[in-house]
């Protein structure tokens, strides 16, 4: 089978080449499965779309609300079935439309006219019958180092008692970087993989010293009790983008969150300890860290071409 | 000034800011024989060219720890 073709635009950029594969429209998806929803922590929605594609899909999504969005995973779940996982901030129940693209091996066409370009291995690299992806723009974005610069108040030290809106407000992300870009499509769609990650945590502890009598030198006489509570609240973030007019904001979305607590009680009699001991040490592998902050590409297309 | 907080460590960030890990505590007497001490251990980001102690103290005042 003969092969070999290349087409350039007037800027001498390659549009079609038999040495590479163009992306082509595979399917449009709506109504995702929502895996997690919280109205705290700045709002969290984790959801996924099920795509059918014989090769690795490349997803694009619309941004119907003023929230941060990001693709957090593309997983093969068996055969030609893929789960495309997304994360979004905010509390809206409106979800993106997703447009799946792949190289032309991902779909076949019954139409009998058009242009088909093959690679030297006999597989297609471009197929005009499959609605090739037309890129309208793109930009590289980086996220601020901290999802929020400081914490506004304290949380309960006893048994992780501060949950819901208290710990959610404590960790809700506020920071973002702003990038100017001319977004020309009437219905823009975005390809953005959430790479940046951050973890933040705060420990609150409380101790009570209860003594029946105080000696001449301030020591405890009689039966004494010392109680100690500790709660470590944590939140894990992923990067997200939010289109806003002719800008793209690169910020953070809370993804997972929780709390770990400890409690201990020690007693003493006549100033002599009668029970209780403990200790801890070492370091956690990942706490209050931010990773993967290098520039991430945002590719913009026109979704109306594929409706 | 006796600082009501303890700076545990600092980390220099890419943009010149500093992440400051600290601990702050306050003690109240619940009754004549019971003292309750509350402690918070977390971090704060101090912007570039800002004094760490001044920034941290002001933030702790705002959140009610000092």
Strand-residue fraction of chain A?
over 45%
The strands making up the biggest β-sheet of chain B line up spatially as: 1-2-3
- SSE pattern of chain A: EEEEEEEEEEEEHEEEEEEEE
Counting DSSP H or I runs of 4 or more residues, the number of helices of chain B is 1
General description of the model:
The complex is a heterodimer of chains A (307) and B (66). Chain A is mainly beta and 307 residues long. Chain A is built from one helix and 20 strands. Chain A starts with 5 loop residues before the first strand and ends in a 5-residue tail after the last strand. Chain B has 66 residues and is α+β, with helices and mostly antiparallel strands. Chain B has a three-stranded antiparallel sheet with strand order 1-2-3. The longest helix of chain B is centred in the C-terminal third of the chain and has 12 residues, at 52-63. Chain A binds chain B through residues 145-146, 149-154, 157, 200-214, 288, 293, and chain B through 13-15, 17, 19, 21, 30, 33-45, 47, 59, 63-65.
Short description:
The complex is a heterodimer of chains A (307) and B (66). Chain A has 307 residues and is mainly β.
Topology:
The complex is a heterodimer of chains A (307) and B (66).
Chain A: E1 6-8, E2 14-17, E3 24-29, E4 33-38, E5 44-52, E6 58-61, E7 69-78, E8 81-89, E9 98-102, E10 116-118, E11 124-127, E12 135-141, H1 165-171, E13 177-180, E14 188-191, E15 197-214, E16 220-244, E17 247-269, E18 272-275, E19 290-291, E20 296-302
Antiparallel strand pairs in A: 1-2, 3-9, 4-5, 5-8, 6-9, 7-8, 10-11, 12-20, 13-17, 14-20, 15-16, 15-19, 16-17, 17-18
Chain B: E1 5-12, E2 18-31, E3 34-46, H1 52-63
Antiparallel strand pairs in B: 1-2, 2-3
Key terms for this structure?
heterodimer, A: 307 residues, mainly beta, 20 strands, B: 66 residues, alpha+beta, 3 strands, elongated
């Amino acid at each position: 089978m003969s092969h070999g073709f290349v087409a350039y635009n007037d800027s001498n950029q390659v549009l079609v080449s038999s040495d590479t594969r163009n992306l082509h429209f595979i399917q449009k998806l709506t109504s995702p499965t929502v895996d997690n929803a919280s109205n705290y922590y700045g709002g969290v929605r984790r959801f996924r779309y099920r795509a059918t594609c014989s090769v690795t899909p490349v997803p694009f999504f619309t941004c119907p609300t003023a929230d941060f969005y990001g693709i957090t995973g593309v997983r093969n779940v068996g055969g030609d079935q893929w789960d495309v996982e997304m994360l979004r901030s905010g509390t809206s129940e409106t979800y993106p439309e997703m447009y799946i693209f792949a190289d032309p091996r991902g779909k076949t066409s019954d139409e009998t006219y058009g242009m088909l370009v093959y690679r030297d291995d006999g597989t297609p690299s471009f197929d005009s019958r499959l609605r090739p992806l037309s890129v309208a723009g793109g930009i590289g974005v980086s996220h601020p180092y901290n999802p929020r610069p400081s914490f506004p108040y304290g949380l309960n030290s006893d048994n992780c008692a501060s949950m819901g809106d208290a710990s959610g407000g404590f960790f809700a992300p506020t920071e973002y970087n702003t990038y100017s870009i001319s977004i020309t499509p009437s219905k823009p769609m975005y390809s953005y993989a959430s790479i940046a990650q951050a973890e933040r945590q705060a420990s609150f502890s409380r101790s009570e010293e209860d003594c029946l009598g105080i000696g001449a030198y301030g020591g405890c006489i009689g039966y004494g009790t010392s109680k100690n509570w500790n709660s470590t609240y944590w939140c894990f973030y992923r990067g997200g983008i939010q289109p806003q007019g002719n800008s793209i904001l690169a910020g953070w979305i809370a993804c997972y969150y929780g709390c770990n607590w400890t409690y201990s009680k020690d007693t003493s009699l006549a100033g002599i300890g009668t029970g209780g001991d403990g200790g801890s040490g070492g370091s956690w592998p990942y706490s209050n860290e931010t990773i993967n902050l290098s520039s991430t590409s945002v590719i913009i297309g026109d979704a109306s071409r594929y409706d | 000034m006796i600082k009501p907080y303890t700076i545990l460590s600092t980390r220099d960030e890419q943009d010149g800011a500093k992440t400051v890990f600290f601990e702050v505590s306050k003690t109240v007497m619940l009754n004549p024989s019971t003292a309750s001490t509350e402690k918070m251990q977390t971090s704060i980001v101090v912007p570039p060219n800002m004094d760490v102690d001044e920034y941290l103290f002001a933030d702790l005042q705002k959140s009610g720890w000092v």
